[in-house]
């Protein structure tokens, strides 16, 4: 802050010196100048306004959101004034300046687009009021912010009290068309512009370059590029970066920024590029460290280097040129002209011409002036016609060679880059959706042709302007010296077109993943239901089987009953041959003997059949019991399965509803993605062309006419300032000298003394003003 304070103080002292030189010059002009020299009076007013505007030093901070612009402003002031956050904060161009004279308490002034102004009290520790009106963090005033023009914050601070005005701008992607003009105007009017980048996104994005390329070309000497979050370079977290030296890390970061400047500003000289990216215009800073309580971090933050650079620019260089050097140069010119005018009058007073000779000379000069005015009228009419004719031709040529080809290309893009085309690319799974290859080639060819045509157009405009100046000067060379004029050419180029658009599939992929899970869950539930249905079918009651089992048991029991009781063995009389024994033993004789035998075959048969019947009955009973048990089990199982089936069906219905909702959301998101991608692709391609065509139609074409009109006006003004007014002033001076001679020698001597003193003061003032001007370089 000491550097900034010192720079502001030096600037203030220089401006005060210039005000003193202006006051002295005006006093001398009132004494010795002529009222016919109206252009000098106007220059006095212009110088006064320039010096008054120089009491304020405007420093504008620009760049995308999340770069730390507000934090950098706070770091430069060394106070926590503006809200800073990683998300988008500043939504409106915000001017921070000193309190008006007589006001003691800080406040916020809201400027509406309709011209109305509202002052709002801003109490200490009140963060809500500023956030409500100036940031995107507060949604309650979103609609009201759309009606705002700008916001002014009036507060007390040593730097602000010295005239520093800080301008915090919105992120360039969030700048609406109305505020875009305000941001451009703030940059144009600022004495210093700081473009804030970050180590996370070096070199600027396409939006920034589209917004700033033309502005940087015009004002590159007052631009500073600050790479914020430099602490990630000083103390990197990445192990790969940690292996590099600090010098290597810094060199790589700076080189990346330089390469991006060279890529986007391809049509300017290497010398200018070197100036834009040297160590005086490209500085790495850690705004967060600058606000740290740790002294080591504050010292390493590079905020002092940035402050020193800003201080140097405020007290020297281009930032001081408009409000100090230019007024001083104009003052030296006026003082020199006044000195010559005084010397001319002294020569007239010292001349030995008689009154009659002086009268004849005045009459001759008067006639020359009248002839000059007639010649000027004819010359100006001819010049006006020629300037208009050439401007009209160049405007038509611009439309034919630049606008029409771009309109054709834009029409081709809009006819081919349709929603269906984007949908097809998304269906293919393309993550980077580009223009059709033929269109891309067509555009690349158009870029080369258009840029080439533009350069030719620019040269043609410069050449035509130079020819018209030469013709004008030639027609006036009998009456005037060579006209000194400086008409700048028109500089414009086709903005780079973002030919592709990265599609974010994350939301749809999330839906796909969730839907896949639900589909799997539904499949599992359905498989469970199918199994349950199979079980239910198998568990259905079988009355026929039970009846068959019962009948079978009855038949077995009837069969057992039909067997009756256990039968008796049958008696059978059988005979057998036995030996016939006598008293003296067997003598070889035999005899037939009858005996009773029992036939148990029927008993055995009965027992067998009985056992079989009993076994059959037992089996039938067991089977019947089994069937009955199975029927009971089936009933219980069927009831359980039906309950589970009902539960599963309810769960399936629930999951189906979830799946349907997810599917609907996915389809809606997919459709929205298609539409958003289509709109973004058109915005990045056709939209760029539309905006550039509109720029050509609304800015470049009128500017061509304007620059020719301005040249004509400047030429005429130059002639008026350098010929008409000086000649009329000389004529009036001669008449005044004649009147003075008639009044006598005493009056002549007194006037001569005044003129000599005035000449001495004027020469002394010229010397002081010239020395002040030289010391500022």
UniProtKB/TrEMBL annotation:
Gene3D superfamilies on file: P-loop containing nucleotide triphosphate hydrolases (3.40.50.300)
Keywords, sorted A to Z: Coiled coil
Record-annotated Dynamin N-terminal domain positions: 59-229
Stretches of the chain forming a coiled coil according to its record: 355-382, 508-542, 610-672
SUPFAM superfamilies xref list: P-loop containing nucleoside triphosphate hydrolases (SSF52540)
A Pfam family this chain is assigned to: Dynamin_N
Protein name: Dynamin N-terminal domain-containing protein
């Amino acid at each position: 802050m000491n550097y900034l304070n010192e720079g502001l103080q030096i600037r203030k002292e220089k401006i005060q010196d210039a005000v003193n030189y202006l006051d002295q010059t005006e006093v001398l002009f009132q004494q010795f100048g002529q009222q016919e020299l109206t252009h000098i009076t106007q220059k006095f007013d212009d110088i006064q306004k320039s010096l008054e505007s120089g009491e304020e030093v405007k420093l504008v901070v620009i760049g995308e959101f999340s770069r730390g612009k507000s934090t950098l402003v706070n770091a430069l002031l060394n106070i926590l004034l503006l809200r800073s956050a990683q998300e988008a904060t500043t939504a409106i161009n915000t001017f921070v300046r000193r309190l008006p004279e007589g006001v003691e308490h800080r406040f916020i002034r809201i400027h509406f687009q309709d011209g109305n102004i509202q002052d709002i009290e801003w109490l200490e520790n009140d963060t809500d009021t500023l956030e409500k009106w100036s940031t995107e963090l507060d949604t309650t005033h979103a609609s009201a912010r759309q009606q705002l023009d700008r916001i002014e914050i009036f507060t007390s601070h040593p730097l602000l009290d010295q005239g520093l005005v800080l301008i915090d701008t919105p992120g360039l992607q969030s700048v609406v068309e109305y505020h875009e003009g305000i941001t451009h105007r703030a940059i144009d009017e600022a004495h210093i512009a700081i473009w804030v980048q970050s180590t996370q996104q070096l070199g600027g994005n396409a939006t920034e370059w589209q917004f700033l390329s033309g502005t940087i070309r015009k004002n590159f000497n007052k631009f500073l590029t600050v790479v914020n979050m430099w602490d990630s370079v000083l103390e990197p977290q990445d192990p790969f970066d940690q292996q590099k030296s600090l010098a290597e890390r810094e060199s790589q970061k700076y080189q990346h920024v330089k390469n991006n400047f060279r890529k986007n500003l391809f049509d300017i000289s290497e010398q200018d590029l070197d100036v834009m990216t040297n160590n005086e215009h490209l500085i790495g800073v850690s705004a967060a460290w600058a606000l740290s309580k740790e002294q080591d971090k504050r010292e390493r933050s590079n905020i002092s280097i940035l402050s020193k650079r800003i201080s140097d620019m405020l007290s020297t260089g281009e930032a001081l040129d408009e409000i100090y050097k230019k007024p001083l140069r104009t003052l030296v010119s006026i003082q020199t002209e006044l000195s010559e005018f005084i010397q001319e009058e002294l020569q007239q007073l010292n001349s030995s011409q008689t009154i009659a000779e002086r009268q004849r000379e005045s009459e001759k000069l008067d006639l020359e002036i009248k002839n000059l005015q007639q010649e000027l009228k004819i010359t100006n009419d001819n010049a006006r016609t020629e300037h208009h004719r050439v401007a009209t031709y160049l405007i038509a040529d611009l439309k034919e060679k630049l606008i029409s080809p771009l309109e054709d290309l834009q029409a081709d893009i809009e006819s081919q880059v349709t929603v269906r085309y984007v949908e097809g690319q998304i269906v293919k799974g393309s993550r980077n959706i580009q223009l059709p290859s033929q269109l891309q080639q067509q555009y690349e060819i158009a870029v080369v042709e258009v840029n080439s045509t533009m350069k030719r157009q620019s040269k043609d405009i410069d050449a035509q302007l130079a020819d018209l100046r030469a013709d004008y000067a030639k027609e006036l060379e009998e009456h005037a010296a060579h006209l000194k004029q400086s008409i700048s050419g028109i500089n414009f180029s086709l903005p780079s077109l973002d030919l592709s658009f990265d599609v974010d599939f994350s939301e749809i992929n999330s839906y796909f993943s969730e839907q896949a899970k639900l589909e799997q869950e539904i499949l599992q539930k359905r498989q469970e239901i199918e199994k349950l249905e199979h079980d239910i079918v198998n568990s259905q009651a079988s009355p026929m089987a039970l009846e068959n089992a019962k009948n079978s048991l009855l038949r077995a029991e009837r069969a057992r009953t039909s067997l009756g009781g256990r039968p008796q063995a049958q008696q059978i009389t059988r005979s057998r041959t036995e030996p016939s024994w006598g008293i003296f033993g067997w003598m070889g004789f035999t005899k037939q003997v009858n005996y009773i035998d029992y036939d148990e075959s029927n008993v055995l048969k009965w027992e067998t059949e009985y056992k079989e019947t009993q076994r059959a009955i037992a089996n039938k009973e067991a089977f019947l019991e089994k069937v009955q048990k199975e029927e009971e089990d089936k009933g219980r199982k069927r009831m359980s399965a039906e309950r589970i089936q009902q539960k599963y069906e309810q769960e399936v219905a629930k999951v189906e509803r979830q799946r349907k909702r997810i599917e609907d959301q996915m389809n809606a998101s997919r459709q929205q993605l298609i539409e958003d991608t289509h709109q973004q692709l058109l915005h990045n391609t056709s939209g760029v062309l539309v905006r550039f065509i509109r720029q050509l139609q609304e800015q470049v074409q009128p500017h061509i006419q304007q620059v020719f009109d301005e040249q004509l006006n400047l030429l005429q003004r130059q002639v008026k300032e350098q010929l008409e007014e000086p000649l009329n002033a000389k004529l009036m001076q001669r008449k005044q000298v004649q009147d003075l001679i008639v009044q006598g020698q005493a009056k002549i001597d007194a006037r001569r003394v005044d003129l000599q003193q005035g000449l001495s003061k004027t020469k002394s003032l010229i010397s002081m003003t010239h020395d002040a001007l030289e010391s500022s370089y």
